[in-house]
Amino acid sequence: EVQLLESGGGLVQPGGSLRLSCVASGFTFSNYAMNWVRQAPGKGLEWVSTISGSGGSTYYADSVKGRFTISRDNSKNTLYLQMISLRADDTAAYYCAKRRAAAGVYHFDYWGLGTLVTVSS
Amino acid sequence: QSALTQPRSVSGSPGQSVTISCTGTSSDVGTYEYVSWYQKHPGKAPKLMIYDVSQRPSGVPDRFSGSKSGNTASLTISGLQAEDEADYYCCSYAGSYTWVFGGGTKLTVL
After folding, report:
1. With an 8 Å Cβ cutoff, is B48 touching chain A?
2. Considering only CB atoms, which residues of chain A are within 8 Å of chain B?
3. N or C: more exposed end of chain A, with fewer CB within 10 A?
4. How far is residue A49 from each of residues A90, B8, B53, measured CA to CA in Å?
């Protein structure tokens, strides 16, 4: 059974840092590109970042570029999101989602339950 | 990237059909055949319902269908059931390994 379990969320002050983790199981982790998608309170979903199966390629939304870093450890089946210089508008539930690392595959076939990040003083 | 435009809410009675629209631009929906739809119940993970505009993953009832015309994609749910009540989000690939989502539509089954 596929499982994606996010952790690391919490309350952080503006300007602070946080590292999110997503532990995967039930599939061959390295065969999948992994993604972070967030949802601010009362808002829609927003794609945040993508990392290739090998970890060699990363992509970011303009809203987080330069502040967030996505990474993965395929030996631990774990995805990370390092967040620095956090702002109030980064407050959201953060979901990890997997996407098969194959040509022509551009949808997210399984998501985790999310972890909540609150940026507030 | 601006969010795709969805109606904030739609509603229908059990057994009826509803259609949710998703309007983007020529940079996303209008260019790529990679529109997907996700269902989200409160407190649960988003679930893939439609991918590549009109493809259904295994396990998704054939009551769910998708289509696209120009810059607008649509999700149609026929034979509405109580368990279909949820938030629905469209998503389009926007090139260069970036994606754009819609603001979400709340479906109420009356």
Report:
1. yes
2. 4, 37, 43-47, 50, 57, 59, 61-62, 95, 97, 106-114
3. N
4. 13, 26, 22
